[in-house]
From TrEMBL:
Protein name according to UniProt: F-box domain-containing protein
F-box protein AT5G49610-like beta-propeller domain mapped to chain residues: 83-281
F-box domain mapped to chain residues: 7-42
Record-linked InterPro entries: AT5G49610-like_b-prop, F-box-like_dom_sf, F-box_dom
Pfam families: Beta-prop_AT5G49610-like, F-box-like
PANTHER family: F-BOX DOMAIN-CONTAINING PROTEIN, OS07G0120400 PROTEIN
Protein source organism: Urochloa decumbens
């Protein structure tokens, strides 16, 4: 009988999580079934494409959750927070309510359970920097890793003299920040938005788009990817391309162009245009200015317990 109940409950539409909660309140047996790891994994395998639960919106006074489904987090508004990244079931925020320009407190938040983990204070000058959050379990399929170990990577550009970028890594397993590693580069500053996780490496934009910062998580090494001059000054959004390589999207006039990095026979990695989306066929030309403001947001999506938060 319990197997039949599970077959019914596992087919509840994922964009209506409130129905699962109501089903769990029917009796203790159903509650144990729905909250069990086996059921959660089957649910994610049956519904591999996460629906949109809502948006995290950075207001002047804090972070606000704007629902797009029946889901509501226990605390929809968080005062004195700044949104940084969302990935693998967690959200990375910065506490701006206290501390100085040099002392930064990062918080890892699970919007579903409302669990918080405050990280040790990291001292750096917040003039040119970015941060990323990711699962730390090797080979994880990220279907049910919200409670597992995680990493937070902070990259900072020193703008006081010779340009160099340093990376600090926090491991939840070690409970401490690593010593920084550093790479020299051209006269450019790291951009806080639009980082991307591709394979086992994190990628970050520089403001002028003359280059991309690569952080190899396995070797714990920083390197610089130079961009051809035709991309300099473009507004690009880093992403994982359809072929699993590093890619980016950009708007040119009324078109979205998607590019990916390719390796040639001599080992040199160039860039190839994968596809072009004609926006004027989808949206009136008069609305292109608004679309240009939102396209960078639309390409950045973090998974939350099998669901999605657009950031």
């Amino acid at each position: 009988m319990e197997e039949l109940v599970e077959e019914v409950l596992v087919r509840i539409p994922p964009d209506d999580p409130a129905s699962l909660v109501r089903a769990a309140l029917v009796c203790k047996r159903w509650c144990r079934l729905i909250s069990g790891a086996s059921f959660r994994r089957r649910f994610r395998e049956l519904h591999p494409t996460p629906p949109m639960l809502g948006f995290l919106y950075d207001r002047y006074s804090g972070v606000d959750f704007v629902p797009a489904s029946s889901f509501r987090p226990p605390h929809a508004f968080r005062e004195d927070w700044r949104m940084l990244d969302a990935r693998h079931g967690r959200v990375l925020v910065m506490n701006v309510g206290s501390f100085s320009l040099m002392d930064t407190e990062f918080i890892v938040w699970d919007p579903v359970t409302d669990g918080l983990q405050k990280l040790p204070i990291l001292e750096f000058r917040r003039s040119s920097w970015s941060a990323a959050l990711l699962c730390a379990t090797a080979g994880c399929d990220h279907l049910d890793c919200r409670g597992g170990p995680f990493l937070v990577v902070v990259v900072v550009t020193d703008v006081s003299g010779q340009r160099r970028t340093s990376a600090y890594t926090y491991s939840s397993e070690q409970g401490a920040w690593s010593e920084p590693i550093t790479v020299q580069h051209h006269n450019d500053c790291i951009l806080r938005l639009h980082r991307a996780l591709v394979g086992n490496a994190l990628y970050f934009n520089y403001e002028l788009n003359t280059e991309i910062l690569e952080y190899d998580l396995g070797r714990r090494e920083l390197s610089i990817i130079n961009l051809p001059s035709k991309f300099h000054g473009w507004h690009i959004v880093l992403m994982e391309a359809e072929d699993g390589r590093l890619g980016f999207a950009t708007i040119q006039e009324s078109k979205i162009s998607v590019w990916s990095r390719e390796s040639g026979p001599d080992g040199y990695a160039g860039w190839a245009q994968q596809r072009v989306i004609e926006l004027d066929k989808l949206q009136p030309v008069s609305d292109m200015w608004l679309l240009s403001l939102t396209v960078s947001v639309s390409f950045s999506c973090g998974q939350m317990m099998g669901y999605s938060l657009l950031i």
